[in-house]
Amino acid sequence: MSLYQDLILDHYRNPRNHGTLKKATHRAAGSNPLCGDTLQMDIIVKNDIIKDVKFSGSGCAISQASASLLTEAVKKKPIKEALSMEPKDVLELLNMGLSPNRLKCGLLSLETLKSALRHKR
Amino acid sequence: MLSSKIIKLDFPIFTHHPDLVYLDSAATTLKPQAVIDAEKEYLEQYSSNVGRGLYPLAETATEKFEAVRKQVSAFIGAKGPQEIVFTAGTTASINLVAQLIEKSLFSAIPADEPESRSRIKSGMTKANIVTTELEHHSNFLPWKELARAKDATFRVVPITEDGLIDLEALRNSIDDHTRVVAFSAVSNVLGTISPVSEIVAMIKSINPKTIILIDAAQAIGHAPMDVSKWNADFVAFSAHKMFGTTGVGILYGKKTLLETLRPVIFGGGMVLDACAKKTLYRESPYCFEAGTQNIGGVIALGAAIKYIENIGRENIRVHETALTAYTLKRLRETFGKHIRIIGPGEASERGGIVAFSLKDIHPHDIAQLLGERNICVRAGEHCAAPLHRKFHLNATTRVSLSIYNDEKDIDKLVARLEEISEIMSNT
Predict the structure, then answer these.
(1) Strand ranges of the sheet holding A49-58, from the earlier edge strand across to the other edge
(2) Which chain B positions have a beta carbon within 8 Å of A60's beta carbon?
(3) Which of B275, B287, B376, B383 is catalytic?
(4) The pLDDT of residue B109
(5) Is the CB of residue A29 less than 8 Å away from at least one CB of chain B?
């Protein structure tokens, strides 16, 4: 089965929550230097709730679609819930398994999101 | 051109994967049956260590192992088997040279020269090590580390927009204090063929004492090669990029130079008198081959050389050049301004390597989507980050060719790339 199912392609072509937040309270950048994937997560946290989240950067379809899906999933959710997410939760969002070589593409978004939540501006 | 249909029969992988379109030979070539058989024969029929045993099996193994040293020497135009050191791969060969230089040559050269000694004292000059933007990390990092260890200047010669080593810049980088120049005969990303003999002559004319190493990993087996004509001090390459197996590398070193170097890796098989106060080591090249070598792999390399010689390196070069030209033409006519092919424009200026970026599609997506159709290419930086920085690219997709490839493979590649372009388009 192709990795590039409609869900992934849809989020790659029309990313949700793409952009930056001027008033972000939390922000972090992540990258996979070997792939050339880069990602920045901007988050506005209020009362321990993720009020808004946006991502920017560039990379392969898997890394970008995963960021789009993840931001959708954590928006309006408590920080705690986002911080407790695990790699398998991201794979569930992507609705597929990833080969070891592509795993880091798929998980860059979660890594960067968690890093941002720990970095208050 | 060679008949790839017939050549494919020599490579059993195509029996297992009849639809395989293998376009990643710059990473490693496929293995012909003759090579597999040679290694299998060693393992099954005379598996034993070389150089030590006095029983017939060990004598057979030793004989066959040393015969390959002679074969390699003749294959590359060395003066004799004493100039051939077996290692674990190109990377191991280059690192070995860096260590040999660090130990035996680095301090020796300036200390011999009163003039440079006083200059160093006064802080006026520093030794320098030169490499280029074209290099694979394995011909970049060992030199960067050596420069750091010896407080030498690390000079990286730029390449031109066409992907050729900038000869003028190289000339200007060489001076009396240049200890090492390392560059590749063929780039693993751009396929650029360097004019090795000319470059070596130019370096030696400015500073005859400079040690020159050629990374020939992507050159070996693709075209005729004569290290005596090159006149470099060291040449490094791997068996697995010339139809041999992984884990075998070759280091050619000039006999007169090897004889002056002290070993840097110690153990069995390289020593004559280990008990003497001053350890007595074997002669080169054996003193550089501590421990048990990849015997089966070396014997298989012998079969690989024979295989290449049967086809003929001239014929291989003609085949790969024609196919490279076809690849460039098909990619250009199909994708026009949407494709950016880096490196020399003409097939005659390249080895069988074509790296490109297509629209703004990430190379990993391209490689994965090609892979889903059993079309094997490489995506990423290809262990050449400085080169990708130069062209302001994060990554590229690389197609690399060998004798088992034909125009049909390229047609399949281009057809699938068209589909990928469609799948990944934003509309």
Answers:
(1) A26-32, A37-46, A49-58
(2) 362-365
(3) B383
(4) 47
(5) no
Which residue does chain A place closest to B422, by CA atoms? A9
Domain with B337 in it: 4-23+312-425
With contacts defined as CB-CB under 8 Å, which chain B residues touch A62? 364-365
ipTM value, please give it.
Answer: 0.86
Which domains are seen in chain A, by residue range?
3-118 (3.90.1010.10)
- The continuous run of DSSP H or E covering B258 comes out as helix B255-258
Same domain, B254 and B317: no
Q: H or E stretch including A42?
A: strand A37-46
Over the stretch A21-35, which tens digit does the pLDDT of each residue have?
Answer: 999 999 999 998 777
Q: What is the CA radius of gyration of chain B?
A: 23
List pLDDT tens digits, range B57-79. Answer: 999 999 999 999 999 999 999 99
Q: Is the pLDDT of residue B110 over 50?
A: no
Mutate to test the interface with A, among B357, B394, B424, B427 (most CBs of A within 10 A): B394
Residue of A nearest to B423 (CA): A9
Residue A120: pLDDT band (50, 70, 90) is confident
Residues 384-423 of B with CB under 8 A from A: 394-395, 423
